[in-house]
Amino acid sequence: MSDVHTAVAGEHTRHHAHHFESAEAEFDACKQGMWIFLVTEVLMIGGLFVGYTLFRGMNHDAFHEAHKMLNVKLGATNTVVLITSSVTMLLGVTSAQRGQRSKSMKYLIMTFLLACCFLVVKYFEYSAKFHHGLLPGGNFTNEELTNPRSSLFFSFYFLMTGVHAFHVVVGMGLMAWLMKRTANKDFGPDYYTPVELVGFYWHFVDLVWIYLFPLLYLVG
Amino acid sequence: MTSGHTTAVAAHGDNYLNHSKGIKSWLFTLDHKRIGVMYLFTVLSFFLLGGIFALLIRLELWGPGRNIMDAGTYNKFFTYHGAIMVFLVVIPLIPAAMGNFFIPMMLGAKDVAFPRLNLASYYIFVIGAVFALCALFFRGADTGWTFYTPYSIRTSTTVILVVGGAFIAGFSSILTGLNMIVTIHKLRAPGLSWTRLPLFVWAIYATSIIQVLATPVLAITLVLLICERLFQIGIFDPKLGGDAVLFQHFFWFYSHPAVYIMILPAMGIISEVMPVFSRKPIFGYKAIAYASFGIALIAFIVWGHHMFVSGQSELANFVFSLLTMFVAIPTGVKVFSWVATMYKGSIRFNVPMLYALGFLELFTIGGLTGVFLGTLAIDVHLTATYFIVAHFHYVMVGGTMMAFLAGLHYWFPKMSGRMYPEKQAVWAFICIIIGFNLTFFPQFILGAEGMPRRYWAYLPEFTNLNRLSTIGSWFLAVGFGWTAVYLWKSMFKGPKASANPWEGNTLEWQTPSPPPFENFTETPIVTMWPYEYRASKNYPMTTPVQGSGKGVQ
Amino acid sequence: MFFNEAYAGNGLPIQGTDVAVMWDSLYNFLLWLSVFFFILVVGGMIYLAVRYRKREGDKSKYITGNHLIEAIWTIVPTILLLGIFAWGYQVYSKMVHAPSDAMEIRVIGKQWLWQFQYEDGKSTIGELYVPINKPVKLIMSSEDVLHSFFIPNFRVKQDVVPGMYSSVWFEAKVPGQHQVFCTEYCGFSHSGMLAKVIVLQPDEWAAWKKGKSVAGGIGTVGVSGTQGGAPLAAESLPAQGKKLTEAKGCVACHSDDGSTKIGPTYKGLFGSKVELQDGSTVVADENYIRESIMKPQAKVVKGFNPVMPTFQGLVSESEMNAIVAYIKSLK
Asked: Rounded mean pLDDT of A168-180?
């Protein structure tokens, strides 16, 4: 996905790439590309959701029992953290559009730190699970959970939150890159495509979490 | 290839081949035409590799028992053949190689929407391919290209490398699709409305939609498979309480649409070639365009027809069989329209047209046998036999490869700036068409008689037909090899091609051969639909209109 | 042999069952329909190619389409295809619905052989003995990976999936040997995973049941009853199952006389409707019993506690078949 952005950004600094007739046309194209990319993401993660739903239907009790092992407080904290980061990202994008460079920078840094915060919380959650032997499949050693299918819940838990966390890490990389370019004074009211597109991406990552949290932590 | 190319065509003046020099100017190029050419050469070298495995498979099947290799080697070879041909050849062949080169040109654009992404897609493809081929140097892979669980979890071969390679190559496919969609939406020349798009563009557009929607599901499926092997997560492995058949659902949810990724672009090429060489407008432009979308849409709801005997419910079988029947309707519409295009034409039998006619013959057989397999009861006996093998080779090789060769000869003058030798090409065509039918037609009979696929040894009753098939495979090899040789030679030494040797109307013919660096010296203004053909005259899409902008709009 | 004299020139194996006869009529219909359409398209193509080749004068007519003809070639195939679908489904339902009086034989697929367990406790490898003119239902399971049981002469095929039962049935009309193939790729010796169905005349069948070897049989595996080389007690399958429920401790919680212990009774279970904890009901068939042994928590019967441990890995496929047969026998 970073390719989308590098591709977009490398082509022009402030003026548009020669194969587009105008900067506006290019911006439209980039936006469309990003939307299509997000559709592919939805389908990929959708595969996991479908799998989860199927197995939850077949092993309702096991999943219900296993989901109680998750720490709802930490999950809720992370939800708040990510929603806040969406807000700061939005502010970052609007300030970039208005050409308020330092403000934009500030918000990008805040978003970045919130993402870090999310990962730190995730780290504590994961290590607690490791500690209790709540691991996928063959590595499952927990003895509290009697249902033999419990490990399957954790297979999905790690897969889904893992894929999500990977997206968070990629998002952080993109933000770091945006900060560098903001510092280089690459963006202004006439050109802010990368900021806007990373914004889209980041909202999408949040949205996935907003579905994951109730599915894994609350409903089970 | 670069240096030879550039010196050979220098006389044409500035073009994409001599615009910049040196190996780096190719490896780091953002020019969609050069990327297209790189795809072409890469994909064709994989075709050679996959073809060698095919020949070895056919040699092993010369007689009923062991011939040249043991069962384990044979199992690996058919896996390599299938995986290479599907993931590294037929899927990228037309969309990535031909699509990259010609879609921007047909749109009157200077490049694709995201040139850097385009180059990245190429390298992602190469990395995926290298990853998959690494398996050859370890313990190989012996699962078949379908990676069915739980065998793919149990086998001691290096399945992860092949699966990982397919996963990576999948992203290349997604990104190419994305690039094409945006390019077609945003970079059409002035006047090029949707109803004036050449049908090849429509076909690539429908293909790209499938690539973008289906491939991510394959990606996540392959991730799950890798996790299953590495961490025993218990989703597909029945020993851990997983569901082995779920993998098949996930896999075919992608891989059935993928079949249409392979055939739709081929249909696009035929839709271009038929009217040019019949000197007549395409018959039923809108029907063909809509049919592409009909096929793309139905592609997503028929995956279960691969699983009629897998143990899925009778209701599911009922629904999937019924839906599958509807694939045949838009496909039939296209075939009939192509044939009708010839009616009252003035047909030229140049090599592209010969291949298009060859396509019609083979694809008709492939399509009709598809109806057999969509019919519930009939599929029960025929599935997993050589009938299936013959059917999909008629579609993928008989369909896609014939159309590719039609397109390759059609566009060769544009891509290389030179002509191929007509007579040799005709003989090679005859060799391929005979070889193809000889190789694969006996397999229909073998399948109906009950010979299962993926069999290293077979009952002696099947010997004669297998021998015919093996003999045919060598005709095919000679035909393909011959084609490769004369095309390679004429790339450097062939007679110079004019800008528009076939008198085509589409925009790629309205610029010199080979095209200049940014395709057009000035942006073309489109005034006509693409199929305004007469016997002795053609009206390029840029013809200034004097009241008679006939046809569709 | 696989192809006997009856193997005609139409490229199909012999018709070993009535289903095969029905199948062949549909296949032949499709074949001739395809020939018709092939001649229509390719013949038409060749005719047009010759008729309208470039000639003196070099003329072509400007035609962009014709709504009538386009409608015809959309609608006519649609009707034909729906007819083909209906016919195909009709034959298919004959193929999959076994008569209720079908004789049951259990089939176990493992890399790379087929094992058959008969109701009377016999067990054979590589040869399936069945009586002529009697419906036979095969209840199939796999020890390891996917397999598929294919009898070309009977036109039936069904995947054998690890972790569940699948079934296929036939009523053989032709005595003698019929080839069986494995048609789902299963590893190194996939192409060697063969078997034969040996269809016996009533008197031969009676003799075979008494333990005599029969003319159709070959080799050593005939009637001796082997499982992995070790002879099985000459007991019926349900009797073996009864012993297994004792040996594995099932009887501590499950009775066979209708009384309720910690778990539900076996008596009258098979084929009954079972109400589950969540209020839904399921029919207790082979797959339900199998699942209840392997994944006891999946479907807990109403009024009982989910306390049963899993027997995953502790019950082999042949033992599972015996236990299911035992429960089935307790009407």
From this structure: 95
Alpha helices in A59-183, H assignment, sequence order: 60-67, 72-97, 101-131, 150-183
pLDDT at residue B512, as a whole number: 92
Q: Taking the domain B2-510, which CATH number applies?
A: 1.20.210.10
Residue for token pair 């990319």? A37
- State the Cα–Cα distance between residues B331 and B365, nearest whole angstrom: 12
Q: Which of B401, B89, B420, B369 is nearest to B270 (CA)?
A: B401
Q: How far apart are CA C292 and CA C289, in angstroms?
A: 5
The pLDDT of residue B303 is 93
Q: Which of A8, A19, A22, A45 to mutate to test the interface with B (most CBs of B within 10 A)?
A: A19
Distance from CA of C282 to the nearest CA of A (A): 14
Which residue in the set C158, C188, C192 is minimally distant from B309, CB to CB? Answer: C158
Q: Is the pLDDT of residue A147 over 80?
A: no
Q: How distant, in Å, are the alpha carbons of A21, B288, B336, B360 from that of C44?
A: 47, 19, 10, 11
CA B129 to chain centre: 17
> What is the structure's pLDDT at C214?
61
Cβ distance C245 to C251 under 8 Å? yes
Angle at which helices A23-58 and A150-183 pack, to 10 degrees?
170
Return the residue in C278, C288, C292, C295 with the most chain A beta carbons within 10 A, the one to mutate for interface testing: C295
C-alpha angle A79-A84-A88 in degrees, rounded to nearest 5? 150
* Whether the Cβ atoms of residue A201 and residue A169 lie closer than 8 Å to each other: no
What pLDDT, on the 0 to 100 scale, is given for residue C86?
96
Q: How confident is the model at residue B547 (pLDDT cuts 50, 70, 90)?
A: low
Query: In this predicted structure, what is the pLDDT of residue B396?
Result: 92
CATH code at A24-219: 1.20.120.80
**pLDDT tens track for B90-145:** 999 999 999 999 999 999 999 999 999 999 999 999 999 999 999 888 888 999 99
Say what the ipTM of the complex is.
0.91
B126 touching chain C per CB within 8 A: no
> Do the Cβ atoms of B221 and A40 come within 8 Å?
no
What global pTM score does this model have? 0.89
Delimit the domains of chain B by residue range.
Answer: 2-510
- Measured in angstroms, the CA of B325 and the nearest CA of chain A are apart by 26
> Could you tell me the domains of chain C?
103-231 (2.60.40.420), 237-329 (1.10.760.10)
Neighbours of chain B (3+ CB pairs under 8 A): A, C
